[in-house]
Amino acid sequence: MEKRIARLTWNTNGWVQPSGKIGKSTNKDSHEGQYGYGHEEWLFDNSKVVEGYRYGFLEPIRKQQQAYVGKNYNVWLYSIDGTSKKRYFIGEIRNVEVISEDEADRIKDIYVYNGWFDEMEAQIKSCGANNDGFSNWQGVDLFNIRFKISDIDYRGDYFELPKENILYGYPRYTFAHFKEEMELSSKKRDFKFISRPSLDDAEDDSEWPDFKGTYEREPKTIEVEYLHRIISKKLQKTLASKYGAENVTAELPAGYGNNKIDMVVRNSDEYIFYEIKTYNSSRTSFREALGQLLEYSCWTDKNYAHKLVIVVQKLADNKEVEVYVKHLRNCFNLPLHLMSYNVKSDSFSDIT
Fold first, then answer.
1. For residues 260 and 254, is the Cβ–Cβ distance under 8 A?
2. Where are the beta strands (DSSP E) in 57-214?
3. Higher pLDDT, 173 or 146
4. Cα–Cα–Cα angle for 218, 120, 262, nearest 5°?
5. Preceding peptide of 214 cis, ω within 30°
6. What 8-state DSSP symbol labels residue 351?
């Protein structure tokens, strides 16, 4: 499948909802320069699925949409922090289909009916951007692509592109052909220890990693909270059918502080703890859930759970996380397992 590149408007919320004017273009001829937000800022809001697809918007496609309608692409995504001018690799979406204007209008009607349109406008206001005219946009101004959630390969770490990457010389928004020299070394590299002099022994600052004297707001990814609630309800129903409703409890207090375990199953005299995470990167979800589950089960000198299960969305990077989970079990004998929820089929995978 043909591979293209697309730039996204800057967002520090993982493209789940608008993040405000910080980092946006200041060019008054651009939409984000005038209003403080871009229509790509909801690209990964996976709580809104229509007929098994996420509908979204890419500015580079808007300029020549008729030429792309009905075609499918693998799209390599990057963004520019307007404040630092740094370029970041965001991830890739496979099998992106460009939709027609009629389809875009139909989807807008569904968003309006479901109350999602009003929610989006409220998010624009709450982040401090200007919502003037939002309700007047046509469907084609809000949606021009669709894809399946399982085809999202989102890098929640915002991988910074090196200064020599050719994307530093590209125009603002171009749906250009992907070139191999755009690729970055995001593949796993072997660990290598580097010896550095201490701060006292270093001859100059170049021998030591940079220390920032001022605070720099780091981009981050956020959870899709509404999707978290949906998965929790469906998981409780699924587990109740297997273990019995009396043996499944949601939001169970962990026994200290205000901490609550997403889901607990009682299986004879053993317990299974479940933690649900709905980040758009399975790796990020696993990372955030791991510490919580270990703490809930073992704080401070106990061992309550027989099995710890992390529940994530079915995304393109699931396989990598499955390998990692098995590796952790082998290395440390941790009772860790992974389970994924497929939005399209509305079903859970087996525990791995």
1. yes
2. 72-80, 87-98, 145-147, 152-160
3. 146
4. 65
5. no
6. P
Paired with 348 in beta bridges are: 341
Tokens read off for 181: 């020299």
> Would you state the structure tokens that stand for residue 348, as one six-digit string?
């859970």
Structure tokens of 334? 């941790």
Residue-wise pLDDT tens digits, 275-305: 999 999 999 999 999 999 999 999 999 999 9
**Cβ neighbours of residue 287 closer than 8 Å, sequence gap 6 or more:** none
Cα 13 to chain centroid distance, Å, stands at: 9
> Measured between alpha carbons, how far apart are the two ends of the chain, in Å?
31
Note the pLDDT tens digit of each residue in 215-274: 455 667 788 888 999 999 999 999 999 999 999 999 999 998 899 999 999 999 999 999
- How deeply is 63 buried, as exposed, middle or buried, from its count of CB atoms within 10 A (0-12, 13-18, 19+)? exposed
Neighbours of 54 (CB within 10 A): 25
How far apart CA 131 and CA 135 sit, in angstroms, is 8
- Please state the length of the chain: 352
Closest CA to 251 of 274, 282, 225: 274
Q: How many CB atoms lie within 10 A of CB 8?
A: 23
The secondary structure element, H or E, covering residue 237 is helix 225-243
| Contacting residues for 102 by C-beta, under 8 A, at least 6 apart | none
* Strand 87-98 with 72-80, pairing: antiparallel
